[in-house]
Amino acid sequence: MARYTEALTVERGGFRIKVPESWWEFDVRPESRDDSIRRMVDERVRLHPELEQYRDAYVTFLRKAAADAWKSGALYCGCMAESFGGETPITGSVTVSLVGGRTKAGDPLANDPAAIAAQLAVKEARRPGDSWREVTTVDIPGVGPAARTRGVEDVPVPDDALNRTVRAVLMQTYIPVPGQEGKVALVAGSSQVLDLADSFFDIFDAITSTFRFVS
Questions:
Q1: Residue 2: inside a domain, yes or no?
Q2: Fewer CB within 10 A of the terminal residue: the chain, N end or C end?
Q3: Where are the alpha helices (DSSP H) in the chain?
């Protein structure tokens, strides 16, 4: 999982972040994302014919990631879907969203990292294989302190009538937006490859550490 050495800088309204250049990015709007994904997969397979056997797996994963990103209001969604010699591709994603909240009285919620961390629930695994979540504060170089959760969590399936969940490696970093009370940039990394949790935590941390606000 450490074979990526080149980084691609992505800049959107108000921020920039670096991801491995082999990652996928596409239009997440419902009216155009399926065609965008199809064209990107076709191009990747054309350049690397050995990936043909994974075409359907790539398309399915990328469509789900795009749909989830759109529903969460993400401003950026980057995905990895790579074959490392196994039967199925290794997949993961990183999204960046601008979020905020208000109290019942209508006042903006505090976006101080310590205050955010105090509101996030810790969950301990009682036995091997249980879901778990750690809550910490971290320092983003050039940005400052931020609240963070990381763990292996049961994530609700969006719009599922049966209220099913999917277990995933998840890291979420809440970075206060300067000059905007109650607003945070949420950098969320996710993968369903549970056996590689530690490797994905390293990847998500490395990507999040490149986050910067721009004017």
A1: no
A2: C
A3: 33-47, 55-71, 113-119, 197-208
